[in-house]
Specification:
With about 650 residues, this protein is an alpha/beta fold. Helix content is about 30%, strand content about 20%. Bound molecules: 5'-O-[(S)-ethoxy(hydroxy)phosphoryl]adenosine.
Length: about 650
């Protein structure tokens, strides 16, 4: 256990929910939380069925809540039909929200554009009609590779309106990653932009799509729809490429939503696992949307006057659930931001909260940690230099938030008065799982606190037996829940082996190690598999290793994570070249070449922070690489473990010195 985790577990500060917040909260007080929890434990089907009827508009009502007959391939509300986009847009026009601002978009350069629910509805209908005119329909799959924009939300919603399953690829991924996803998902449609703006610079997007197409195997793709973001020059294939505005502008502003089965795949989102190949996490329509909406109300305490801001990118699950679907289903006004937190300066987030009077702010610990540093360096960028009095609730997601960062966030951004919801969840869970309810749960800095009603989170040992409070174990969810992953696209066996290993008796295995304290609060201790969390992004060590060994100079590579004060974890790669071990300037030059190679193969987020070269890697006599020892070496610590089983113990000294 690292020192950091140990010190987190000694954290004793408790922050009860502020009385003013409790008074107005959707779930008000501990007893209200407990009542929901008890109901969900006593009668799960009744609980979920009630909420699904209350919160969603169904085209065909369901008669069965949960079908477990093919477990772990669960079906929720499986004979019901609905349309997700209708539940996000049409219902708001009916509920009197037509003229309410749905999205406040702020571009990288600061330009602001607002659309009302009526306008968003029309944009989505026009684009959906355009896609329809090209022959796209329910059952097709699209890949969306767009910058943060109103258009990204429109594209996803238009797909949902027609029953087209979307797979959004983060704009920072390379042509190769894009190619892998286009082919794996079998896309017939790609939606992209000419360029995106980040930190004052234009970064091209369409060339990566062209490059992916040129790699072959994408023949199923009939069209590439291009959003003109900057007007930058792009290569054009007139048979395949079509501008988004030319497709949509002259279409009718009405497009009937297509009713789909509740289990219809709304989206497939790729995430890293413990092998080299990312997993296509398949999500449903009904169960997913139900949880997106309910967690908006419970965890974010959504109210009609809120201005909600989730800073994630729609390329990640957080952007799916808490930008494209949840806030719209809850009828909120939300901020969508194109840029980065440090441009034009590190005060950008605080200025935007001030300008748009954000009431709920949801971001990642890595952003908070980097802004702490920046505001210490320059008082003008400190949150205290801005009027943040509109805020009433803060959130954190993606990685554990260390108590120091929590306290800073609480005091400086939240003015000491805003609860912080530290939300633990995953791409696979669809929405929040373990998190405070801000009007009910006492907060403990560093803990994501308690399970949500309906979520049977627990800590177990390797045989599935319950582990006592205060002891570490595997984090599992014992019973299925509506927004859970339904399958790994095209790989049902991997779905079972990754998430429902037989030793655990049918529990969902999250892949995180954690422990629970005597109050039932969970403390996440990090992944139990070969997955790293770098700046809140999941990254498989095997993915980075495969990228490295595909370089012509590399014979062997082992990748581990090292704790990092800003990014949570950092990638450290140990590399053996086919030729002799480089030293000095040559090592630096080859190191740079390999880092750029990884960025090109996967994306800049996967670039190793450090590369160390060795004549060999530490291996057991049977040839297994001892990653455990590499993790120690990567941290700059002395290896104190027994290394007698190593074939080549001396190699550890060589690998201990950074290039
Ligand atoms: C980690 C992001 C501690 C965890 C929504 C999980 C967290 C992985 C938290 C999922 C949190 C996410 N506290 N750890 N509040 N939130 N994690 O799929 O290891 O990108 O398994 O989903 O991030 O990452 P993913």
């Amino acid at each position: 256990m690292s020192n950091e985790i140990e010190s987190v577990l000694h954290e004793t500060r408790v922050f009860p929910p502020p009385q003013d917040f409790v008074k107005q909260a959707n779930v008000s007080g501990q007893a209200a939380y407990q009542a929901l929890l008890d109901e969900s434990d006593r009668d799960p089907d009744g609980f979920w069925g009630r909420h699904a009827r209350e919160h969603l508009t169904w085209r065909k009502p369901f008669t069965q809540v949960l079908d477990e007959s093919k477990a772990p391939f669960y079906k929720w509300f499986g004979d019901g039909e609905l349309n997700v986009s209708e539940n996000c847009l049409d219902v708001n026009l009916k509920n009197g929200n037509a003229n309410k601002v749905a999205i406040i978009f702020e571009a990288d350069g600061g330009e602001v554009k607002k659309v009302t629910y009526q306008q968003l509805y029309e944009l989505v209908c026009k684009f959906a009609n355009g896609l329809k005119s090209l022959g796209y329909k329910s059952g097709d799959r699209s890949v969306i590779y767009l910058p943060m924009s109103i258009e990204a939300v429109v594209a996803m919603q238009a797909c949902a309106r027609l029953g087209i399953t979307h797979s959004v690829v983060f704009g920072g991924f390379s042509a190769k990653s894009l190619h892998e996803r286009i082919t794996d998902v079998g896309a017939s449609l790609v939606i992209t932009a000419d360029e995106q703006m980040r930190g004052g610079k234009a970064i091209t997007l369409k060339p990566a799509v062209d490059e992916a197409f040129a790699m072959g195997g994408c023949e199923a793709v009939r069209h590439c729809v291009v959003y003109k973001r900057t007007g930058g020059k792009v290569a054009w294939d007139a048979k395949r490429d079509i501008w988004m505005h030319e497709l949509a502008d002259n279409q009718s502003a009405e497009c009937a939503p297509v009713a789909v089965n509740a289990e219809h795949p709304l989206f497939i989102l790729y995430t890293s696992g413990s092998t080299g190949k990312p997993k296509g996490v398949q999500h449903s329509s009904g169960g997913y949307l139900l949880w997106a909406k309910l967690t908006m109300q419970w965890v974010f305490d959504a109210k009609p006057n809120d201005v909600f801001w989730c800073t994630a990118d729609v390329g990640w699950v957080t952007g799916h659930t808490y930008i494209t679907y949840g806030p719209l289903a809850a009828g909120l006004t939300q901020i969508v931001f194109e840029g980065v937190p440090t441009y034009p300066d590190a005060g950008r987030f605080w200025k935007m909260i001030q300008d748009h009077k954000a009431t709920i702010f949801y971001t990642a610990p890595t952003a908070i940690r980097s802004l702490i540093k920046a505001s210490e360096a320059n008082a003008a960028h400190h949150p205290k230099s801005f009027d943040l009095s509109s805020l009433r609730l803060l959130g954190s997601v993606g990685e554990p938030i260390n108590p120091e960062a929590w306290m800073w966030y609480h005091n400086n951004v939240g003015g000491g008065r805003c609860p912080i919801v530290d939300t633990w969840w995953q791409t696979e869970t669809g929405g929040h799982m373990i998190t405070p309810m801000p009007g009910a749960t006492p907060l403990k800095p560093g803990s994501c606190t308690t399970r949500l009603p309906g979520i049977t989170a627990a800590i177990v040992d390797e045989t599935g037996g319950d582990v006592e409070a205060g002891h570490g174990g595997f984090l599992v969810i014992k019973r299925p829940w509506p927004s859970m992953i339904r399958n790994i696209w095209g790989d049902p066996d991997r779905y079972i082996s990754s998430y429902f290993p037989s030793e655990l008796g049918g529990y969902y295995l999250a892949g995180d190690g954690a422990q629970c304290d005597k109050d039932g609060c969970f403390w996440i201790m990090g992944r139990i598999d070969d997955v790293l969390n770098v700046s809140g992004h999941r990254l498989g060590t095997m993915e980075v290793e495969s990228a490295l060994v595909s370089h012509e100079l590399v014979a062997e590579a082992a990748v581990v994570g090292r704790p990092d004060a800003t990014t949570g974890e950092a990638v450290v790669a140990f590399v053996v070249l086919k030729r002799s071990r480089p030293e000095g300037d040559e090592a630096i030059a080859i190191g740079k070449q390999l880092r750029d190679w990884v960025a090109k193969e996967i994306g800049p987020i996967a670039k190793p922070k450090e590369i160390r070269f060795g004549d060999n890697l530490p291996k057991t006599r049977s040839g297994k690489i001892m990653r455990r020892l590499l993790r120690v070496v990567a941290k700059g610590e002395k290896v104190t473990q027994d290394v007698s089983t190593l074939e080549n113990p001396a190699i550890l000294d060589q690998l201990s010195s950074p290039v």
